[in-house]
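Obj.: predict assembly geometry.
Materials: sequence records (below).
Method: joint structure prediction, all chains together.
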Amino acid sequence: DTGVSQDPRHKITKRGQNVTFRCDPISEHNRLYWYRQTLGQGPEFLTYFQNEAQLEKSRLLSDRFSAERPKGSFSTLEIQRTEQGDSAMYLCASSEGLAGQETQYFGPGTRLLVL
Amino acid sequence: GDSVTQMEGPVTLSEEAFLTINCTYTATGYPSLFWYVQYPGEGLQLLLKATKADDKGSNKGFEATYRKETTSFHLEKGSVQVSDSAVYFCALSDHTGGFKTIFGAGTRLFVKA
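Observations (raw structure tokens):
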């Protein structure tokens, strides 16, 4: 068990560019979450996968955001045409067990800065 | 919709002082409640949880009791240490209406030697 990993850890991009982040969950976990965290705030839910199925998306997730989890393993989060307001820490978490009661295991996050 | 409100920080205490961090919630269903902690330079990790009313979660000397009547889940520790300095997040998970977990804004704790 190597924990949840995220890549890259830091990303600086120019406004209008596309970026893609990767999350590798704990191998036996069937649930995967993406969150966004800005300075001084708690994580905000973006989207949730159970295996390869994306079961919920937040209204925060505009059309410029897309997430995938092919084969129910790693996940990617893509932001198209980035805006300065997208600058934040993007967190991934994975879990297993009884829905709603499970412990989520968080990765270290990807810090995005849009110039 | 569901929400979590926790006391604003920072909270600054001397070592061995008593700690309380208040957390109240609003939920339409019967949520599970969590405290997560983020130590400097590290990712979020679960500190404790409670899944039904009157349950008490405990870990590392920290405790919190799920109070349905006051919709609260206050975090307490009888004697804090410098190593407890971190940001603490209260959270709820109510999968009856979806799959999202709602986090509070976090409370930063500084413990002085």
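Conclusions so far: Chain B touches chain A at residues 4, 31-32, 34, 36, 42-46, 49, 51, 89, 91, 93-96, 98-106 (CB under 8 Å).
To do: check interface contacts against the pulldown list.
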